[in-house]
Design a protein that fits this description.
The structure is a single chain. By secondary structure, the chain is an alpha/beta fold. The chain has two domains: about 400 residues, Aldolase class I (TIM Barrel); about 35 residues, no CATH class. The protein is about 35% helix and about 15% strand. The strands form five sheets. An eight-stranded parallel β-barrel has the order 5-6-9-10-11-12-17-18, surrounded by eight helices. A four-stranded antiparallel beta sheet has the order 7-8-16-13, with no helix packed on it. Strands 1-2 form a two-stranded antiparallel sheet. α6 packs across α8 and α11 crosses α13. It binds flavin mononucleotide. Flavin mononucleotide binds next to β8 and α12. Keywords: Oxidoreductase.
């Protein structure tokens, strides 16, 4: 099925495809189970995630055993067995957890961000704070820095993973100062360790802005252009620039990174946040020795913001690159249906970070099953059948007003019967009465 056929289906079956038709942990989406993947729920997943979409796929080396094909072929050449990628963060901190991710079937793993000198990275505890609605976690703040493990250790673990899982995709997330030599050294050493691609962390919202790292670099398009130029002159592997949402228009840095040679863009990193104030102690959370620093917000609450940013980058990739750049969507994804929304906007793959911290690595089976369920309901056989299908339905508010005026005028013109009792006539009386009969 083509995108256009898919769009017709989307328009034709309103009950199933409006933006609000989705399942959340704990809710029932009413979908019929289209094939035999319906009933296998992994016991290791927490209850709420396990209820999301209520289907679980069997995976072999990340590939679904049956049902609609979930393979992703990125423009950059990266081929993933499924679109679900471990987002950089705690779920990619060391060999043990990355191995677990491959064993469970994640489509790719992006390791925790590394830099050359870990001695400059000093984390604090507590460094997380949750926002709950009833008992469910809907928002998560972190003030965690990049990896505080020695680069040599991380590189040895990359090597080991690639030796054990040669067919799986391992992406290094890297971040450095405004120093060409440092970027070149980091890229060279990661490539020697065998990574398949790079994601550049231009988006960490806290920590080390004084060294112009992370978000401080990603918010400055001039700096970004120069640094992306260095990176792309050196890297022989595909490069994705990970964008910060903490900027007026995310299309600016995304355009800058793509123009400087990056094969793709990933969005979003976390949103600058203050989780709240403890009303007993009057101190902000998470409190470290009575003080805090603004952190990064993630989890379900950020999904609408992430969708808007991904939409904006997808429009740019469609209009300026004829769809020929990678787009990896991130932010609040916990179900296959969440993922479908990002893919419908044009993302090729999606990343999950906080969702793994809440529900564990087996979540990937649930994510694949939920996505397949969505695809089966619409008759989609592959992700390309519907990728970007919802993107054309964004327009300006001005256009919405014009379209609504036209629709009302058309309805008025098509109205049957008399507009008021003063319109009855003696000669046409029978015809006029007939024009208002329903059967
Ligand atoms: C505790 C924590 C640590 C993170 N560390 C990194 C990091 O080292 N590098 C990075 O690029 N993003 C990092 N992120 C951001 C995530 O990769 C992701 O962009 C963001 O959390 C939104 O996705 P999510 O809602 O699925 O978590 C971190 C997020 C969390 C929650």
């Amino acid at each position: 099925m083509t995108v256009l056929q898919g769009q017709r289906r989307l328009l034709g079956s309103r009950g199933n495809c409006g933006p609000s038709v989705r399942s959340r942990p704990g809710s029932h989406n009413g979908y019929q189970r289209p094939h035999r993947l319906a009933s296998r729920v992994s016991a290791a997943i927490s209850t709420s995630a396990a209820e999301a979409g209520s289907s679980s796929a069997d995976l072999e080396d990340g590939k679904v055993v049956d049902g609609p094909d979930l393979t992703v072929k990125h423009f950059s050449g990266l081929t993933l067995p499924n679109p679900f990628v471990i987002g950089s963060g705690p779920p990619g901190t060391n060999y043990a957890v990355m191995k677990k991710a491959f064993d469970e079937g994640w489509g790719a793993v992006i390791a925790k961000t590394v830099s050359l000198d870990c001695s400059k990275v000093i984390n604090v505890t507590p460094r997380y704070a949750k926002l709950r609605c009833q008992k469910e976690v809907i928002g998560w703040e972190n003030i965690e820095l990049i990896s505080d493990r020695p680069l040599e250790t991380m590189l040895d673990e990359f090597k080991r993973l690639k030796a054990e899982y040669p067919g799986r995709i391992l992406i290094a997330s890297i971040m450095e100062e405004y120093n060409r030599g440092a970027w070149e050294e980091l890229i060279e050493r990661c490539e020697e360790a065998g990574v398949d691609a790079f994601e550049i962390n231009f988006s960490c919202p806290h920590g080390m802005p004084e060294r112009k790292m992370g978000m401080a670099m990603g918010q400055d398009c001039q700096l970004l252009e120069e640094v992306c130029g260095w990176i792309n002159a050196k890297a022989t592997k595909p490069v994705w620039a990970k964008m910060t949402p903490n900027i007026t228009d995310i299309a600016y840095p995304a355009r800058t990174a793509l123009a400087a040679g990056c094969e793709g863009v990933a969005a979003i990193n976390t949103i600058t946040s203050v989780m709240g104030i403890n009303l007993d102690t009057l101190r902000p959370e998470p409190s470290v020795e009575g003080y805090t620093t603004p952190g990064g917000y993630s989890s379900r609450a950020v999904k609408p913001i992430a969708l808007a940013k991904v939409m904006s980058i997808a429009q740019l990739i469609r209009s300026e690159y004829d769809n020929s750049r990678d787009l990896s969507g991130i932010g609040g994804i916990e179900t296959g249906q969440d993922a479908a929304e990002f893919l419908l906007l044009g993302a090729n793959s999606v990343q999950v970070c906080t969702g793994v911290m809440l529900h564990g690595y087996p979540l990937v089976k649930q994510l694949c099953g939920g996505l397949q369920q969505f695809m089966s309901n619409h008759g989609f056989n592959s992700i390309e059948d519907f990728r970007g299908a919802s993107l054309p339905y964004f327009t300006s508010h001005h256009e919405l007003v014009r379209m609504q005026k036209e629709a009302i005028a058309a309805k008025k013109a098509a109205r049957v019967g008399l507009s008021g009792d003063d319109k009855w006539s003696g000669d046409g009386f029978v015809k006029e009465a007939e024009s208002m009969v329903a059967n």
